[in-house]
Write a structure and sequence with these properties.
The complex is a heterodimer of chains A (about 300) and B (about 625). Chain A is α+β, with helices and mostly antiparallel strands and about 300 residues long. Chain A has helices spanning about 5-30, 35, 45-60, 65-90, 95-115, 120-130, 130-135, 155-170, 190-200, 200-205, 245-270, 285-290, 295-299, and strands at about 140-150, 185-190, 215-220, 225-235. Classes of the chains: A alpha+beta (about 300), B alpha+beta (about 625).
């Protein structure tokens, strides 16, 4: 990861995350405290009963009857007993479903944490500059075009030279060329838009044409064109103020990802990763394993 | 029109002399004073994201924001880990997630305890977590239960109107659209899909709002499950009426996949529940459903060879095995209630009986993709849902299979898109163009099609350099009624022009499809070839010979050495009878190009499955122009 600017920002969300983690640990420890002391005791607190009733009414849009309440508590007890026994027997070990579910829970918390702090304008400006290519506004052209069709002419290129000469000597462009559905006039149209209308061959050629004179022929997928470029607006990098929402959206996406990666690496430090050599030496496999390990662990 | 004397207002009576300065006459510049659309705006009106229950269960993990980014032209990574990008951005997008069970999948993935308390919730959660084939099996089970109305009621209630959870979710949908709606550059509509199924018979509609968050937040989507929702389209129309009355906004509904409705999409006499069509039904349907989505991944629904035996292009990507879940097999009698062309014809007959044509719709295409990726191109097709994203065996897996028949993976259709003749790229302008049906559909390529009808087009108009100016001046655009027939006119003329996709294939031909109602109440249709490439001559049977085929199957390639870049003409109906109601629409065919399955075979170096065509003739369908005697 080469995202130096994220390090500073990350340190804080990571802190949030660790603090929340500690808080959760404390909270669950408190709630399950008595059970930890006396592993064979299951306490049904009034709070627990209320939670069961609440879940029920949220689903059914009414409170449970007494009989249903008893059923809910029975169900809760059954859950607890089986759950504890299963954990005691180690049935949660090596279960991919449970593993993935727990990993997901942590990742959800990270998602929430990453949205806690809004970026400052300085951070966004830096982000914008580092990715200038993504935000650069393309060159725009205003031009007029005249179309010559292969389907209507035997020698389009020769005709194009004639028409070009007429245009340069001041003939009315409205009387020249073949009928086409393409618009004749384009106002401040971006290079991408030109490409969408005429194809990339045309769009690459037209940006190099001189301004103020009829030029061509410029080929496209439709036929050939004679073009008068009237105005050119050069490519530029917009100010943050013009595109702040878009930059912020991208910034958040990257932060979320960076935070997940950073947290992973941070937590990984707490573990020693040992890769045992395969029984039969398998070069490909060991390359794959070392490639999969992040820098922190590879060292 | 009520003629008010001008003196009734404050400004006094205008004299001709004072007014001439205000209306100085014809503008010298032909480009001035033009308010008509210059270029069509391309979009997908029907895309699902991970928020749709079924999309989620098929494994889709991409939320709306990725769908918008992709549509805007950015590269994204699909759920199956493949980098993907459109050849060019779309101009607008409607994310139309299923309103029933919206968000259910996300919570199943998160293992929300409320859901796991239900046997179904727990079962689907398990399949989902296992991934792969188990996830696909869970999804099929969910769809089956859902389409047969067998999801546990309490579970459905959580994900239905009335619950807080549901309202929060809808607000998230609105916020996402708002974040990406960028007037002038990219339009993100607020919408949803109402997923009405009657025992597996498809009556789905996509609902699109013209409005922003302030109005959209005042409602939540309409569902099909009782008690809050209903599978009856009449109840959807009531919901739409209520939306407009309550918020002052505007909305419309677009039905799709009549081909999977087993005859109930376009009834001639009785509705799905056996009740006769009545005045309310026809006026409400006409009011709320100005468009029909006639082509998409689950089959092309313009025409069926059984209904149009004389049309050699009618059997295009046909899905006619059964209803949506193939729980009931198809019979020939059902077909007339399923296909767009037949519906347009039925509409003329119903109008004669009940006074309003309920099927006076414009035509569009959409993907209905469930991958969050609006892909409709043959060489860039990401499939119906996550289980059918590109991989070597996607063609040879059955997409649907039971005792009534099966549909194979290769039968998915890389289709379609909608082109809208809007004056600017905003919610309002695009919606208004949809309302006036100035739209057309394609099976994926972006050919530009203009279609005008009028009474005084001349041969010379075909050569004008200002086609649109003449078209709007002398006629009406696609989706309209012909102006009243002037004294002395003999038959309507149509100006039709098509320009190929700038990065696509040349055009084979332009056709005009006419449907009409004769005096004894029978409907008819006829397809005319009106413009074509390569100076071909029609045979003695009146049929134009094929354009040829340059597709190199082994290398999944073709050349534009046949066909034309642009085709157009002025065509006058040679068999016009002013006493008969009629409609006309244009169909534009490309020369053959490799079908998506051919690209798959080439890229994965595998054999094409038996039955899969090697090439396809992609096409555009315009909205019709209608003629009514005496109007």
């Amino acid at each position: 990861m080469k995202l130096p600017m994220f390090r500073k920002v990350l340190r804080e969300p990571l802190l949030h995350f660790l603090a929340i983690g500690a808080g959760l640990f404390f909270l669950f420890g408190f709630m399950n405290g008595p059970a930890v002391d006396r592993p064979n005791r299951i306490i049904v607190t009034p709070g627990q009963v209320e939670l069961l009733a609440e879940n029920f009414s949220r689903t059914w849009m009414r409170p449970p009857s007494d009989k249903e309440m008893q059923g809910l508590i029975q169900g809760y007890l059954r859950d607890e007993v089986f759950y504890r026994k299963a954990v005691a027997l180690g049935l949660d070990q090596g279960d991919n479903l449970i593993k993935r579910r727990l990993r997901q829970k942590l990742e959800f918390i990270l998602e929430d944490v990453s949205a806690l702090v809004d970026p400052t304008d300085e951070e966004l400006t830096l982000f914008l500059q580092e990715r200038a290519e993504n935000y650069r506004q393309q060159p725009q052209l205003s031009f007029r075009q005249i179309f010559l069709s292969y389907d209507r002419r035997d020698d389009v290129l020769a005709d194009a030279e004639d028409v070009l000469a007429q245009l340069r000597s001041g003939d009315n462009p409205e009387q020249l060329g073949d009928p086409t559905m393409l618009a004749a006039e384009f106002e401040r149209t971006s290079q991408t838009d030109i490409e969408r209308r005429f194809g990339d061959q045309f769009s690459r050629r037209i940006v190099g044409l001189p301004q103020g004179v009829w030029s061509g022929p410029v080929p496209s997928g439709f036929g050939v064109h004679l073009v008068l470029v009237r105005e050119r607006v050069d490519a530029r990098l917009p100010e943050l103020g013009e595109i702040k929402e878009a930059v912020k959206r991208d910034w958040l996406v990257e932060r979320r990802k960076a935070l997940q990666d950073a947290t992973f690496r941070e937590l990984l430090k707490g573990y020693e990763v040992v890769v045992e050599p395969p029984a039969a030496p398998d070069h490909a496999a060991s390359v794959a394993i070392s490639a999969a390990l992040p820098e922190a662990a590879a060292r | 029109m009520i003629a008010l004397p001008a003196a009734a207002q404050d400004a006094g009576t205008p004299m001709p002399g004072t007014l001439s300065a205000a209306y100085p006459g014809k503008a010298y510049s032909p480009y001035a004073k033009r308010k008509f659309p210059e270029t069509p705006l391309w979009g997908d009106s029907h895309l699902h994201t991970a928020l749709s229950m079924d999309a989620g269960l098929f494994g889709n993990r991409l939320p709306p924001r990725d769908a918008y980014r992709f549509a805007r032209g950015e590269e994204v990574v699909s759920t199956t880990g493949q980098a993907v990008r459109l050849s060019r951005p779309l101009d607008w997008l409607v994310i139309a997630d299923h309103s029933d069970g919206m968000g259910l999948f996300g919570d199943l993935a998160a293992g929300k305890p409320q859901l796991l308390a239900y046997e179904q919730g727990a079962r689907w959660n398990k399949g989902l977590a296992e991934g792969g084939d188990a996830a696909v099996a869970a999804a099929l089970d969910l769809i089956t239960n859902f389409s047969q109305g067998k999801v546990e009621p309490a579970l459905m209630a959580l994900y239905s109107p009335g619950s807080k959870l549901y309202k929060n979710l809808w607000e998230r949908v609105i916020d996402e659209a708002e974040a990406f709606n960028d007037p002038g550059n990219f339009t993100a509509f607020i919408g949803f899909e109402w997923t009405s199924l009657i025992k597996g018979n498809n009556m789905h509609r996509v609902v699109i709002m013209r409005d922003g968050p302030v109005r959209a937040r005042q409602v939540v989507p309409f569902t099909m499950t009782a008690p809050q929702g209903s599978p009856d389209p009449r109840d959807l129309w009531k919901y739409l009426t209520n939306y407009e009355e309550k918020t002052g906004g505007e909305a419309l509904a677009i039905p799709h996949n009549g081909n999977l409705s087993n005859g109930i999409m376009f009834p001639l006499e009785a509705q799905w529940n056996g009740k006769q069509l009545d005045e309310t039904y026809v006026t409400q349907r006409d009011k709320w459903e100005p468009l029909y989505e006639a082509t998409q991944i689950k089959g092309d629904g313009e025409a069926h060879p059984f209904l149009s035996p004389d049309d050699e292009f009618a059997d295009y990507e046909t899905w006619a095995i059964g209803n949506l879940d193939v729980s009931e097999a198809k019979t020939d009698e059902m077909l007339a209630g399923e296909y767009a062309r037949e519906a347009l014809k039925r509409g003329l007959a119903i109008e004669t009986k009940l006074g309003t044509n309920p099927y006076k719709f414009g035509i569009i295409g959409a993907t209905d993709s469930h991958t969050s990726l609006a892909t409709a191109e043959e060489d860039n097709f990401f499939g119906k849902h996550t289980g059918y994203e590109p991989k070597p065996d996607r063609m040879s897996h059955a997409f649907m299979e039971n005792e009534n028949g099966k549909i194979m993976g290769w039968q998915m259709v890389a289709s379609g898109l909608a082109a809208v003749w809007a004056t600017e790229n905003t919610r309002e302008a695009i919606f208004d163009a949809m309302q006036r049906k100035e739209v057309y559909g394609t099976t994926g390529p972006r050919m530009i099609v203009r279609f005008f009808g009028g009474w005084n087009f001349t041969e010379q108009d075909a050569n004008t350099r200002l086609l649109a100016v003449v078209g709007y001046e002398k006629g009406v655009p696609m989706g309209s009624d012909l102006r009243a027939m002037p004294e002395g006119a003999k038959a309507p003329g149509f100006m039709v022009y098509a320009l190929r996709d700038p990065i696509g294939a040349n055009l084979d031909r332009v056709q005009i499809v006419k449907g009409w109602l004769d005096t004894d109440g029978t409907t008819h249709e006829k397809v005319y070839d009106v413009a074509w490439s390569d100076s071909r001559v029609p045979g003695t049977d009146g049929k134009l010979p094929p354009a040829g085929n340059t597709v190199d199957v082994a290398n999944a390639n073709w050349t534009n050495t046949i066909g034309a870049a642009q085709l157009g003409t002025i065509w006058t109906d040679p068999e016009f009878d002013p006493k008969q109601k009629a409609f006309y629409y244009a169909r534009v065919l490309e020369i053959p190009t490799p079908r998506w399955s051919t690209y798959d075979a080439f890229r994965y170096d595998i054999d094409l499955p038996e039955g899969a065509p090697t090439s396809t003739q992609e096409r555009a369908y315009t909205s019709p122009i209608w003629y009514t005697p005496g109007s």
